[in-house]
Amino acid sequence: MIIESEILKVEQISKTFSGNSTPAVNQVGFTLPQGELLGLLGPSGCGKTTLLRILAGFEKPDRGKIYLAGRLVNDQTLLIPPEKRNTGMVFQDYALFPHLTIAENIAFGLQTKQTRLSRSEIKARISEVLLLVGLTGLEKRFPHELSGGQQQRIALARALAPKPSLILLDEPLSNLDVKVRQKLRYEVRRILKQSGISGIFVTHDQEEALAISDHIAVMQNGYLEQLGTPEEIYTQPASRFVAEFVTHANFLPAFRQGNYWKTEIGEFKIPVVDLSTEVTSGELMLREEEILLHPDDNALIFVSDRQFLGREYRYCLQTFSGKRLHARTTINTQLSIGTKVRISINNLSIPIFPE
Ligand SMILES: Nc1ncnc2c1ncn2[C@@H]1O[C@H](COP(=O)(O)OP(=O)(O)OP(=O)(O)O)[C@@H](O)[C@H]1O
Ligand SMILES: [Mg+2]
Fold this sequence. Notes:
Layout: E1 6-15, E2 25-33, E3 37-41, H1 48-56, E4 63-68, E5 71-74, E6 87-90, H2 102-108, H3 119-132, H4 148-160, E7 166-170, H5 178-195, E8 198-203, H6 206-212, E9 215-220, E10 223-228, H7 230-235, H8 240-246, E11 249-257, E12 260-263, E13 269-271, E14 281-287, E15 291-295, E16 301-308, E17 312-318, E18 324-330, E19 340-345, E20 352-354
Parallel strand pairs: 3-8, 3-9, 6-7, 7-8
Antiparallel strand pairs: 1-2, 1-4, 4-5, 9-10, 11-12, 11-14, 12-13, 14-20, 15-19, 16-17, 16-19, 17-18
Helix pairs in contact: 2-4, 3-4
This protein binds adenosine-5'-triphosphate and magnesium ion (MG).
């Protein structure tokens, strides 16, 4: 069943490139509500670009169905071409035409047979999208006369100009320096929200994904590992992989004792949550920012290193057995190297990954 408010519905999409033994995209399925932004996150080679190219119509999946705005655009027999899908794409390397002015670059997608806009309508639309991306007045410049951040805004304006129903952004900010990148990620979100266009935003950067997305999809080896809100992905990671990829966490071996989990670090015990009784060992996920440090001369853990990160300290701790743990504290917690510390955890439901 197709629900009107879904801009995209993907069912069981798989794709294996010829000559490859494993699929680049493996049975991926999800839906995206109209007007929302999905962050697509995962390590290099996990299939993010392939999935985007399939959605845009540049790549044909071996199996599966894709519905865009309620319309079937792809299945075993049907393949609607990219120009008829009403999607826009923005790439990592901006991909502006160097010999065309900014106005001509933006006009490029507007001069198709489908749109049939007049010259004055095209001019008006160029002004409108330049205003939206905050670059009014740059119509006559060439791409090389703009900064990297400005070029990427123009690439976004070009993709938005034909009013696509879905915009696909493949690591659009990864060529920019960190300051520009942090500013532009909120700009991208504002621009999409303001124009009511749904988007999929691919990134390697978990902080970027958490900061701007309504939903996050985490991929690994072609599979969709988890889909959820940023808060769900962060607080309830579905697998050890997601936990490691998305959070700054320690994984501490633990053994079950009755209703508690016992770890090597002192009297520290954790109530059992939502696990079958057969599970007797596993790893506790302790996020770095949830570890509280209490100086204690009788403790078996000591501070082995400390990094000052500006907003916070990151402490490296060493346990009796030699295992290393990391903790992030505010700059009010100042402990010198060698200090013995007891640990408590500021979280009532600690995730456990069974062995
Ligand atoms: N045209 C192609 N022919 C053969 N194999 C390909 C092709 N394109 C991608 N692949 C393979 O498919 C897998 C997924 O690649 P993809 O580019 O989708 O990954 P990605 O998640 O976008 O990675 P990155 O973060 O590095 O951009 C990789 O193993 C890659 O080598
Ligand atoms: Mg890629």
